[in-house]
Write a sequence for this structure.
């Protein structure tokens, strides 16, 4: 059986849901849904030995007992010629140890046991459960070992403690049930069966997780009178999942999970829409009152004197800003005025210095042009030698000091030119400072005018008598509008979410894919069931239709009816026929994943002849050649249907009217 690749499935889902591939991937990932087919798990559950001891009371066979039952491949029959002789109790003890709780062990019989030991293997690993009676109830130990014989020897007291390992010890009955639940799911690679279950007398429901006890219904078959094909409890997904336990259809488990998930999400969204509608209806009166209050507030607004475009708050804020701006500009103006004063003083100082330089220069020219003969102090005539030294040695004839040497790179003309440039630069700086000071002063004047205007505007606004009322009305209007916005006017339904669209589309796509993948296998199954049903002598059986949801339609004498409508004996024979067909076809197709243990109680108790029961048992026993490792443990009160039809070493019996153990 082949199915499309995960990528192809994702595209199909996206197309059907009308969303992008990325949305599909996100939704599936968020809900832990994988589109990768999981190969059939190889599961094995073999019962090796059941031993128990205790004391029977309040019967005609009172007294202690100590029984041992060993099981091999094929059919093992537990037979007595009377009912209520302990056959069903053996099945119940096996069930108690494997399932974690008995299915229907009589309360008075339960009191007899003091110790129960079941040796079994899961996927080839030897294990054992030991139930020991104490004052508070039964206490359970779970053991495992590497070798079944070593485990048996330890339980018999013939092997050391280190020969085995304890999985759990000292478990109460409730703890043991929980432990076996989780342990068997893990060891057999089974997932909880999730189904959507409606509450009594309600359209509401919830997802329910059903675990190992539900799966055990595919091992311990219902009694003949049961109306369901598989399982010992009734819920929608169980028959399909037990069917999946026998023949693993790729992605069928995922499809079953998506079906439940879609119902949960759709219910959640429907509830959300219903709550919105109910809330809107409940708030309709309150909303009408709010609308009326808002209209009254708006009418009061209309009665207030007209207000300028600018509110008091806006003008006040702008005035505060202008005052801050005035402070800034006044500081700038003062700074610019100081800079102008400094520039003006610098220019004036330079002019004074330049005038002094010119006067000094003129005086130097005057004195240099003189040729003094007498001392300007005492008016005595200079010596001629001084005059000669002045000419020859450049020594002043007046003060006798040497003339200063002239700098070739500078001169009077250069100094005059530099002095002129400096004065011109100072004049330019003074002019720039003057312009800056005048601009800053003008800015200050402009802002002062703005402040005066805003002050007048603010005074007018603050004088309005309606200011307080206007603010109060504004607040009330905002409050009413806020409440109306939080109270939607209508109860308009929300469209389905993308998550729901994707989940339901994925369910539809996988339903189609699994139906196509399983089509050929179900044709083979129906043919096999039909042949076995006729072999088991179901009268006028014309057609059977085993469906992927675990239901079955049966046509006899031209009338098609569901499985539950046929007689009890026919239901039993059809149920066994279905089990045999599933095991055979699953093995042939390579998709079989049943653990290989079948428990069947009293097949001849409801409209089944000895011959038909014998035929049924022979067919079951023949499976051991086709399916090595298959075990069927059956309890029967019809010795004639068992003796000479099964190997003698596969029969535990008491045909003298007494108990089986």
């Amino acid at each position: 059986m082949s199915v499309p690749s995960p990528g192809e499935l994702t595209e199909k889902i996206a197309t059907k849901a009308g969303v992008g591939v990325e949305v599909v991937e996100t939704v599936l990932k968020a809900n832990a849904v994988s589109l990768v087919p999981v190969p059939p798990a190889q599961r094995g559950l073999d019962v090796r030995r059941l031993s128990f001891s205790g004391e029977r009371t309040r019967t005609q066979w009172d007294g202690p007992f100590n029984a041992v039952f060993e099981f091999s491949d094929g059919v093992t029959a537990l037979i007595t010629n009377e009912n209520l002789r302990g056959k069903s109790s053996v099945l119940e003890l096996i069930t108690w140890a494997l399932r974690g709780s008995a299915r229907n062990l009589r309360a008075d019989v339960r009191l007899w046991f003091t110790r129960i030991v079941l040796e079994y293997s899961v996927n080839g690993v030897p294990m054992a459960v030991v139930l020991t009676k104490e004052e508070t109830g039964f206490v359970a130990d779970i053991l495992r070992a590497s070798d079944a014989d070593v485990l048996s020897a330890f339980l018999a007291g013939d092997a050391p403690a280190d020969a085995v390992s304890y999985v759990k010890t000292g478990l109460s009955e409730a703890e043991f049930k929980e432990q076996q639940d989780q342990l068997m799911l893990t060891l057999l690679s089974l997932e909880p069966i999730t189904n959507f279950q409606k509450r009594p007398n309600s359209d509401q429901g919830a997802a329910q997780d059903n675990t190992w006890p539900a799966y055990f219904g595919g091992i311990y078959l219902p009694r003949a009178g049961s109306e369901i094909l598989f399982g010992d409890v009734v819920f929608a997904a169980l028959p399909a999942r037990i069917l999946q336990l026998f023949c693993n259809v790729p992605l069928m488990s995922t499809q079953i999970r998506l079906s439940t998930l879609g119902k949960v999400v759709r219910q959640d969204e429907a509830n959300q829409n219903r709550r919105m509608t109910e809330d809107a209806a409940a708030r309709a009166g309150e909303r009408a009152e709010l609308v009326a209050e808002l209209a009254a507030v708006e009418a009061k607004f209309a009665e207030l004197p007209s207000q300028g475009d600018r509110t008091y708050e806006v003008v006040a804020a702008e005035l505060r800003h202008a005052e801050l701006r005035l402070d800034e500009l006044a500081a700038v103006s003062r700074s610019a005025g100081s800079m102008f004063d400094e520039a003006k003083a610098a220019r004036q100082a330079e002019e004074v210095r330049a005038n002094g330089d010119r006067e000094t220069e003129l005086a130097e020219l005057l004195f240099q042009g003189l040729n003094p003969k007498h001392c300007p102090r005492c008016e005595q005539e200079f010596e001629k030698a001084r005059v000669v030294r002045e000419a020859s040695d450049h020594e002043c004839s007046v003060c006798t000091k040497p003339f200063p040497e002239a700098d070739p790179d500078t001169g009077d003309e250069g100094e005059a030119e530099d002095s002129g440039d400096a004065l011109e630069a100072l004049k330019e700086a003074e002019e720039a400072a003057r312009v800056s000071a005048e601009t800053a002063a003008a800015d200050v004047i402009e802002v002062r005018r703005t402040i005066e205007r805003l002050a007048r505007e603010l005074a007018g606004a603050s004088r309005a008598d309606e200011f307080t009322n206007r603010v109060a009305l504004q607040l009330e209007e905002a409050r009413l509008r806020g409440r109306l916005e939080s109270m939607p006017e209508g109860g308009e339904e929300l469209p389905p979410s993308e998550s729901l669209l994707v989940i339901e589309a994925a369910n539809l796509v996988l339903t189609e894919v699994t139906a196509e993948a399983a089509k050929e296998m179900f044709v083979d199954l129906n043919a096999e069931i039909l042949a076995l049903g006729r072999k088991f002598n179901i009268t006028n059986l014309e057609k059977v239709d085993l469906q992927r949801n675990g239901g079955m339609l049966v046509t006899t004498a031209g009338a098609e009816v569901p499985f539950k409508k046929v007689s009890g004996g026919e239901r039993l024979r059809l149920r066994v026929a279905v089990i045999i067909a599933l095991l055979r076809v699953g093995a042939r197709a390579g998709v079989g994943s049943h653990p290989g243990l079948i428990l069947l109680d009293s097949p001849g108790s409801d409209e089944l002849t000895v011959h038909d029961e014998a035929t049924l048992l022979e067919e079951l026993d023949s499976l051991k050649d086709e399916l090595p490792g298959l075990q069927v443990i059956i309890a029967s009160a019809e010795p004639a249907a068992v003796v000479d039809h099964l190997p003698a070493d596969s029969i535990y019996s008491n045909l003298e009217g007494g108990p089986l153990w």
DSSP finds 16 helices and 15 strands in the chain. The chain has a mean pLDDT of 86. Residues 312-463 form one domain. The first helix runs from residue 6 to 17.
